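User: Hey, quick favor. My workstation is busy. Could you predict this chain's structure for me?
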Amino acid sequence: ASTSSATYNPRTLDQLSSALWLSILRHAFAIATQELSHLNLLRMPGDGYSDRAADICAAVDQVDDTFAQIALDDLPTEEDYSSGNNTQIGGEPRQRGWLGRVGKGLSKRTMNLGKGLGLISAQVSQEDENARAMVNSCRSPLASPVGGIACQDPAEAKLARSVLSMMIRQMGRNLLQGQNVMNTSFPIQCCQPKTILEIAQSQGGFFHAFLPQAARAKDPVERMKNVVSCFVAAMTLTSANFLKPLNPILGETLQAEYSDGSKLYMEQTCHHPPISSFHLVAPGKMYEYYGFTTFDIGFGYNRMFLNTSGQRTLRFEDGGVIEIGFPKDRVSNVFWGTMHHETLGEQLFVDAANGIRCSITYAPAHRKGLPTDFFEGAIERFDPKRPDADGQLVSTVEGSWVGFCDFDGVRYWDSRSSQKQAISPPARTLPSDSRRRPDRNALAAKDYKLGQAKKLELEEQQRHERRLREAVHGKHSK
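Assistant: No problem, here it is.
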């Protein structure tokens, strides 16, 4: 209060309020823990209650910085507060006070949020109007109005949002039983009865519709168009997984056969970080698709970010190779609002041998009034020795990953007429196959008590095996 308004940084007010609120929560939690200690609710045989209370406070402190960063990341920038602070009154400039600058920052943040939700209209060009009409004319019934795929089942969204409270209750049970608070297993009732490997196999659902044409194409540009269309179309097949899939255990496998005769082999080859390796072989080895993927998760204000990385290679029988990049994924309205999955950022497809690349941008920032599933991009000829140099435009692409993909106005994929192929397990599978997991099968039968018990057994088995590997190979063995 004693700080001069002329020198006080108003953005610091938001930082202080966020930090103060988090501090209040942390100390309230500590006070509650101490009160429980006095009531002997935290006493363990042979263990001091003060240590148990300290364990809880330490656990809260560990997540404190993360939640603080979430709050601070959502604040306006310095420029949002400082720009336009002078107002003209009676012909004389007047400096806006610190409270006015804070109000301006909050107002700008509210306006940006309203525009993003479509509640406040922004000026839209005729080009964007035409694109919006085209997107809305060919759109999945599962699509969210703001973009991407929406959660269709309110009960599923409610269950996904109950994870935090369930984990806190489980931490409390661990504490009262004298167990490690941080060894808390994700509640199985908040999972879907599929593993990450099972979801990944869905990506091949449209391969039969595009990749044989790509394999037969003599023109590398035409091949690129079919490959890009294939992977854009496949995005709808792995979306809408709002309940967490089960994490594969190290060495877990999955085999699958597609109706066109293709065969897929997958294995979880690393636990930390989670790495899934795969190899799909088409009939007659017309093409092969192989590589590995890993991911990490981050959180923002009412949002979750999924960053996938790794290597994906598509090799054709004539020796042609196309490397396939990864866009970014975001789940919005994690805690309130209509939950939906969006794909953002840039995705790159590269045929280095022929000097051809295709770059796609999802939800391009310069386009207004369009759902975030809209994308645009171009195929270019480029010099592989100078990949950062500008390329020569060959073809343009635009569409919506929940509806269609057009190259130079020619439609290559239309969701209304595409049929995905059937996927089934082979007659014989390995004992390590995902579909043999006891926790997965108990979850599918809605026996949550058995499922959680089997899940805990698998997790403890993983920890035991890791300790054995570390004893032989050292601390950093996978």
